[in-house]
Amino acid sequence: MQFRRNLTAFFRACSGKRRLNDAASRAIFIALLALLLSASPTRAATLHYDAYLSGLPIGSAIVEIERTEHAYRVSGTASSQGVAHLFSDWHSDFLAAGRLHNGDPILTDYAYDEREKAKHRVLWLSEGTVRHVKNDQVRPSHPVRTGTDILTAFFIQPDCWADRQLHTGRYSYRVTGRPSRQAAGCHFEVTDSDGDRTRIHVLFGQHEGRRIPIEVRSKGLIRGRITLRPVSEQAAGMLLAERP
After folding, report:
1. Could you tell me how many helices (H) and strands (E) the chain has, helices first?
2. Quick one: which of 234, 154, 231, 157 has its CA closest to 200?
3. Which residue range(s) make up the domain with 27?
């Protein structure tokens, strides 16, 4: 994955330009890198999503979910595609991993590596602290935000939550939901720390025995949607990728 290459390059850059604040930070980073390199994709369910704005393709994402009796791991990559790629070369690799206690997830590691043109941000969470680096400059660390990270919430504990606090590592959101008229559908209102609200509709479904979001639609003036690619198209794409 590009995430591995980006994180390795980032670590070299930090060593040459500005070292991380203390030995503990370096140890956490190395542990996170080891976690990424120890992935077992053969045991993971792979999901392909496509994003659209007013019917035009603007992005895609691949998400891998690995879950055992005692642990879970969600990782993947997302990038701008189609017409959006004419204006932005945005790309992000991401990871959330943790333990399962009586079926409930306990996050231990969370990270993403995000690039767009000259901007590059790496964020990682471990042992209750969030650390990030923007354009090779170490930013102030801060405690983990309240609530559940969005990867764990939507891919390990997907539900129509009446009231839940979610975070992306950097930002927190309050999410309130109610069932929609569509079977397995849910209306969510998402409120950020500034009080701005966004309304979305999420349709849940089953994929390889897992409950996952299969469609997300935004409401309001800007209408966008993210949909799970049909299984037949996913299989065809994987066969093409395996050809020499």
Report:
1. 4, 16
2. 154
3. 2-242
Residues whose CB is less than 8 angstroms from the CB of residue 135 and which lie 6 or more positions away in sequence, other chains included = 118, 119, 120, 121
pTM of the model: 0.78
Q: Over its length of 244 residues, how does the chain's per-residue pLDDT go in tens digits?
A: 444 444 433 334 433 444 444 444 454 455 555 555 554 444 578 999 999 998 899 999 999 999 998 999 999 999 998 878 778 899 999 999 999 999 899 999 999 999 999 999 999 998 889 999 999 999 999 999 999 999 999 999 999 999 999 999 999 999 999 999 999 999 999 999 899 999 999 999 998 889 999 999 998 777 899 999 986 555 444 443 344 4
Give how many domains the chain has, as a whole number: 1
Amino acid at 81: Q
Give the residue from 219, 98, 200 showing the smallest Cα distance to 155.
98
